[in-house]
Structure formats: C-alpha cells, structure tokens
Amino acid sequence: MATRLPLLAFPGLPTGLQTMELTAALIEARTPARVLPARPAPAVPDDVLRRGADAVLAERGDDGLWVFAYGALIWDDCYDCDERRLGTLRGMARRYCLRDTSNRGTPGRPSLTLGLEPADGACAGVVVHLAGRGLERNLWAIWEHEMSGGLYDARWVQVATAEGVVDALTFVANPLNPSFAGQVPEDEVAAILAGTAGPGGPAADYLRRTADAMRDWGAPDPYLDRLAAAVAERLNPAWLAPAL
C-alpha cells in the first residue's frame, strides 16, 4: 500500500502506531483534535452565496443534479444523495494549492487544502447525484461548504463514469484569490499538513480521509498516498528511532 513505509520498532508505541501508515490512531495521538479560535466569518456574504446557489438551481435544478466530489465531499455527510459513481474528470488535477486559515488551519498557522487545477491527465473522484426532492437543502449544504471562503470557482464539467458521461457541478481553485498557493512542493505540503490543525480538526485527518476514500473506491491517488506516507513519517516518533 502506498501509505506504508518500512516498519521501525518503537517500544511502547500503542498498537496501530507501529507502522508508517497514516491512521486515525496516529493522528489522534500526535495532533490536537482542534485548534480554536472559532471559525472566522465567511469571506463571501450570505446573500451573495444564496444568489449563486439559486442561479444553479434555476439553470440545472429541475430534476436534480450531479456534483463532482474530489476532496471532503467524497466522505463528508453534510448532504444527502441518491446515487454515487466513480468518475473521471479530464484536464484537471487534485492538488494542495490553497491556503486554509479557517478549517484545518488558523490565521496564525495556515494550512493547505485541496483544489482542482488545470493539468494534463485526469482526476478521479466521485460524482454524487442530488435528487429533485430536497435539492435546495442539499445543494445549499454543499455550496456553503465550498463557496463561503471564496477559494473556488463553481463550474459545470463533463465527468466520465462506467454508466456514461454526466454533466456535473464542481469547484475549481480560484487562482485570483489571495489564498491561492499554486504548485507547492510535496515535501513542503507534507510538513504543513503534519503540523497544522484548525476548528475543523487536523489537516492530516482530512488527507487521511480523502486518500482512504479514493482507495475504497478502487482509484487510489498516488499524489495523496505519497503525502499520506510523508505525513505519517513526520507524525510517528518511531521514524526518529536509531537504526539497529
């Protein structure tokens, strides 16, 4: 598995922490559950958010709609859907390219979060279908989650699935936002994720959940798996143990 590194003995380390795999137990043992202060006010006013969500409903919302999830929306339970499919979005890559000061980081110690960037190749994710019944409530839960910080542009994209191509709403990193970090070297990303947390919890846990979710869907992301291994190495005190 890509998130495993060679075992290093570390006497006294709890069961489940004896590998370089990024696990919930390791994160809980080595990072704070949350770092307050509380979340800052949304960067985008509520009335502006509402108008954006209403525009989506007016354009595509008659019989429900698809959303392409590539990060927390894969595993977050903030919304209800009636169908999920593995999907592939061409011409985009999932990258830690946005600074996060409100969820898994703080203004005093910013973290990074995932965004989609134009790139060669393709990004695997999950398309979720929001049914017509309850659509307004479920779309708002997603829209508020993704758009309140001003980090993303909402776009309609075509996503390939085993059952055919679907038009889906997704959220692409906004390069004009001051929080856009661009291409951050992976070792720097790993160091930041290992050392930051915010009101939403540790940044390492967001990474773990997303990497695990993609593996559960049978579409592991080598980028996420490399980062998970590097973060685990930084969190696990066994990596500091001298070789025998």
In short:
The protein has 244 residues and is an alpha+beta fold.
Summarize the helices and strands and which ones pair or pack.
Layout: H1 24-30, H2 46-60, E1 65-69, H3 72-75, E2 83-100, E3 111-130, H4 135-147, E4 152-161, E5 164-173, H5 186-194, E6 197-198, E7 201-202, H6 203-216, H7 222-235
Parallel strand pairs: 1-5
Antiparallel strand pairs: 1-3, 2-3, 2-4, 4-5, 6-7
Q: Overview of this structure, please?
A:
There is one protein chain. It is built from seven helices and seven strands, in the order H-H-E-H-E-E-H-E-E-H-E-E-H-H. It has 244 residues and is of the alpha+beta class. Strands 1-3-2-4-5 form a five-stranded mixed barrel. Helix 2 crosses helix 4, helix 5 packs across helix 7 (222-235) and helix 6 (203-216) crosses helix 7 (222-235). The chain starts with 23 loop residues before the first helix and ends in a 9-residue tail after the last helix.
The counted number of beta strands is 7
Mean pLDDT: 88
* Uncertain residue segments: 1-19, 240-244
Which strand order do you get reading across the main beta sheet?
1-3-2-4-5
Helices and strands, in N-to-C order?
HHEHEEHEEHEEHH
- The helix tally amounts to 7
State the share of residues found in helices, binned by percent: 25-40%
Radius of gyration, taken over Cα atoms and rounded to an integer in Å: 19 Å
Throw out a few tags for this protein.
single chain; 244 residues; alpha+beta; five-stranded mixed barrel; two-stranded antiparallel sheet; 7 helices; 7 strands; 31% helix; disordered N terminus; disordered C terminus
